[in-house]
What we know:
homodimer, alpha+beta, BirA Bifunctional Protein, domain 2, Rossmann fold, 3 domains, 5-stranded mixed β-sheet, 14 helices, 23 strands, globular, disordered N terminus
Amino acid sequence: MADNKGKMVEAITSMDENFAQWYTDVVLRAELIDYSSTRGCTILRPYGYAIWENIQKGLDAEFKRTGHENVAMPMFIPESLLQKEKDHVEGFAPEVAWVTHGGTEQLTERLCVRPTSETLFCDHYAHIIQSYRDLPKKYNQWCSVVRWEKTTRPFLRSVEFWWQEGHTAHATAEEAQAETLQMLDVYADFFEKKLAIPVIKGRKTDKEKFAGAIATYTIEAMMHDGKALQSGTSHNFGDGFAKAFNIQYTDKENKLQYVHQTSWGVSTRSIGAIIMVHGDDNGLVLPPFVAPIQVVIVPIAQHKPGVLDKAAELKSKLEGKFRVKVDDSDKMPGWKFAEYEMKGVPLRLEIGPRDIENNQCIIARRDNGEKITVSLDNLEEEVEKLLQAVHDGLYRKALESRDSRIYKATNYDEFKDIVANKPGLVKAMWCGDVECEMKIKEDTTATSRCMPYEQEQISDKCVCCGKEAKHMVIWGKAY
Amino acid sequence: MADNKGKMVEAITSMDENFAQWYTDVVLRAELIDYSSTRGCTILRPYGYAIWENIQKGLDAEFKRTGHENVAMPMFIPESLLQKEKDHVEGFAPEVAWVTHGGTEQLTERLCVRPTSETLFCDHYAHIIQSYRDLPKKYNQWCSVVRWEKTTRPFLRSVEFWWQEGHTAHATAEEAQAETLQMLDVYADFFEKKLAIPVIKGRKTDKEKFAGAIATYTIEAMMHDGKALQSGTSHNFGDGFAKAFNIQYTDKENKLQYVHQTSWGVSTRSIGAIIMVHGDDNGLVLPPFVAPIQVVIVPIAQHKPGVLDKAAELKSKLEGKFRVKVDDSDKMPGWKFAEYEMKGVPLRLEIGPRDIENNQCIIARRDNGEKITVSLDNLEEEVEKLLQAVHDGLYRKALESRDSRIYKATNYDEFKDIVANKPGLVKAMWCGDVECEMKIKEDTTATSRCMPYEQEQISDKCVCCGKEAKHMVIWGKAY
Lengths: 479, 479
């Protein structure tokens, strides 16, 4: 924050003392977000937005690789259009912002600010799809959406948030299902290989699925405090929206058919996941792929001749390949160390007069604090290796932390005891009845996160009612 | 359009017969835009959005090169915040969309959907700027904004449009003025060097300046029909907003000072300019920098052995450096030619059995129809040269077309005659009084486009009232 300039970085709340306060401290002190004068809406500051830009670049490349095209839809949905699909309007109407006036005049029909854009895409698809030759249509848009949330938290739940929403239309149910699963895989790979966050892939129960979908798939991640964060979802709509919006095509036999649709999204919530999975008591810890600064060069005794020149030389050596910054401000090195630790920069490179003499530098890893002496002769390869090591280290640590806190429960007392006393997730069998799901939520506040792809036969019986079990479910408290 | 599939491309309205209809035909038939069910809002289709993505990439690199950082602000502005700067609210309040309800509940304060974000940036700057060390702040955001326009046209005037808005805060008036002019130069260079559109740089009269600015600078381009299009603007706010929002910093002498601010923007209107400057009776003509497809490869007699393989080979040869597509669909080559001409693809590469025998191909330029036989041995260099030639050809043609239609008027009869009878722009002297500006608009519908940087002394007297002249103004009918 601007008012910290010139003084040493103040300590933030410790994670284990007060995780919620720690989270807010990190978000503000790492300058990711500022609050705005609009209730529940935040400002993405340059450092926070730069992380989002890197996420966008990574995902957008994957969407294009898998044959998707970007478009831009209006931000407003006429009320009558929102109402066309029954389940969808029931799910979203209670939480939308309504525009009722344009200038000084009252509108004849209210417009809602998009909470999601299925209805707009369907309306467009009904207009542009006529023949099987027009299929598939695989569109995506990057935008912000609005949901009138009462209680909000930076990145996790806000009135406005930024995301991408993919919307596709296919000739057959099989193609739509394959697309739904493919995009969940794209998300899972991105979280694991770029954000260093292990995820559990699974299907949502009917109670938890998207309003209007026949099936919702999810990737669920575990945060430092043991709570789950739904990190990306992919929905198969079947032909429900197509029937509501009359999206038909003539097939090769010249018969009219309804299209089958999907949608899928990842949002700025993913930044919340990065913070809560990798962060520590010194602040943010960023996976190298998204870090706006991957290497910060801190000159030591920078008033001594040659030091700043050498720092600049190392920067120009690295910057073709990495995102590098030299901090040659007049702050003390210790202050700079603390500041870039707060900001989660993966590698700090220290260079002083003695290092120059020895043709070396010191590199400190943000993830584990390790300091390594590196020869300047093969700096680029070393930096590349160390960034990979940081990524791998973060992933391994997150995976161990998660796996050590996934429990199994075979009866309801055990289940309740775990939820009450052990932060983490619980695997337990379920009969498939929504009544059990609701009872569990009421008794414990844990919700069904998903029915994982990797099913295990923990017992034969539903953990709640004791009837025959149909699925293994992962349960947990969630953001 | 989807319903054209399988038949030959239908002719569009001729430009000279009905320019407005030609424009609409091109926008729809090149699949840039579709109308939506939300009044005055359009959909940017994949081909239109890809042009916008290329514009974004080009401008964003320039913004970063000149030291700007991207952020994201809320889309809503509380009414009380919009009202803080008097001129600004007067300018924008009559044309904003108002959110009055969140879910089922009426808001205690209305929110407007941002028509522009000065007030949000000021509110944030007041929060984060304390000391001279915090300056300058040079932010930009890419987003859409909303203005409740009554009559709309794709890209040129719509209820929602996409743009970037830069907002900066500086310690001194001189720095703010330098920033204002620098960003106008960035825009002018981008239009000329990337979009091949010549522009006139100048300052707006007080009547035409931005609501709340002390000076507005503009780049004005001439469309095929002789009308002007304001293509980018850069505003110097002085310390007016700073005083209204109390944005102060302590200087090096520890005294409180107000910041000096600027803002500047370019929008999807620029796509309208591309269409109306370069387009012809065969459709869109795209400058290579923004073309989603720079080279389309059309195989000739593609059922003959080796043709499709060769087409694929040429594609893989070119695609590292250029945006290339092979159209191997079963449509007739003539249909493909017409389709990619409609879409404005700069180069069409034809490859057939005889070409393969001769180790050559035919390349047709979209800008002038020229067909060149090119050896496959140095294809990459030839394509590079030809793309540059297309850019240069487009720019030269646009410049000649514009310069041949800029007239000079030394008396009012001459002025009125030119505006009435000669499509184009008129240079004439002006006394500086708003009364003359308003009389000219009322008498002729021409408005003052700008006071160009390059002033000429056409006469001593105001073309309207005959009093002493202060500035040369460019006048014209405008979009």
